[in-house]
Amino acid sequence: MRSPIAIVGYNRPDYLRECLEALSRCNHVEEYEAFFFLDAPNRSKKDDIRLCDEVYGIARNAGGVFKETHILRSETHKGCRENVKDAFDHIFALFEAVIYIEDDIVVAPDFLDFMEDCLEKLRTDNRIFSICGYTPKVLEGKDIKDDLVLIGLFTAWGIGLWRDRWEMVDYKKRDYHKDNALMEGFKEYGYNLPNLLMAEEIDILDTWDVQVMLASFRFSMYTAYPRIPKCTNIGKYGVHSKDRYDGEDRPFYKNVDVWEWHIENLTVEKRLNDYMKSAAASYDSYMDWKSSRPYWKYLAYNYVLKSIIRHKCEGIAIDGFFLENSIKKILIYGFTDVGEILCNELSNSSIKVLGYIDRNPELIGKRKNGIRIYSQPEEVEERCDAIIVTPLTDSYEIQEYLAQYIDARKIFTIAEILR
Question: What's residue 281's pLDDT?
């Protein structure tokens, strides 16, 4: 029995059309059952209704490609995370394994053969969390003898997954990012992963794959990647991308015949795992993350403003968190717009703001509305009960820094006090 194909789409008809065109050229595609999971339009976005209707029309016309076609269209807009979660939950209520494709994935003719064989032969290998058809750039130019390599980092671009692996993913627990020991290991697979996880857990970032990465890491499992790519990502825009294209400078084997992959004696390529970790944690990778900070700052700022407005509309006092936790004196880390907003909101409360903490040397010693900016907590004469971290984009690293001066249990992010 063939594994079902789950195709997730939203408002990108051009991508879905190209995705299906590539799938239609796959070997034995006519033997597969396809499930389309289409999110409803976000009515606050211009043209979303028209684009989503066009996507639905493309899915309806795909019936001749597959053995059977099922279209599950959301009645209301769910967003990326909920739509994908519902897709996996629906599939795994019916099947043991799935081939998952997002609308911006273009596959090679032997992609389905590759997935089917791997899902069957690797199912009982407890080292392996998932199969991915994409070949990470880190493998390029490496002397790889095996057709498959195990790497401890999950990638969502064209994957095969089993039900029991999906059940390892925990979306209910929303504070993994507070586990410093766990995050210390997690960041080895990507310097920004703890920040991404926090953004996902406090609902700034609408994504699903960071929690899957975390599950794979928590259970010390690997994703199997092919030496020769079986798919690529053509996405230039979307929920998490800003005009990116990850494939234009790479070889893509569109006409590869079915090839033999040797998986009976598959071993972990330790050298590449170490390389993957060091590359992900490198300064260049960190600067790539930093380059997207304006976008992340916008998301964080928008989140804080919406939270404060919600508090006011619901009659919730901004100082409620502090009073519940017997906090009377605080320092605010980050002389930012968000920091100023928090300080102003607390000005008419019983909470005393002792000062700002900021590592920008040009700000140290200055005052804003009578409140001084310090470089370190120990410079402040009065002892604080807590430090509130306002920059959400680098909160994990900031909390690590502040833990040198104060009990980590007294360090909170602004997202925690505004929940």
Answer: 54
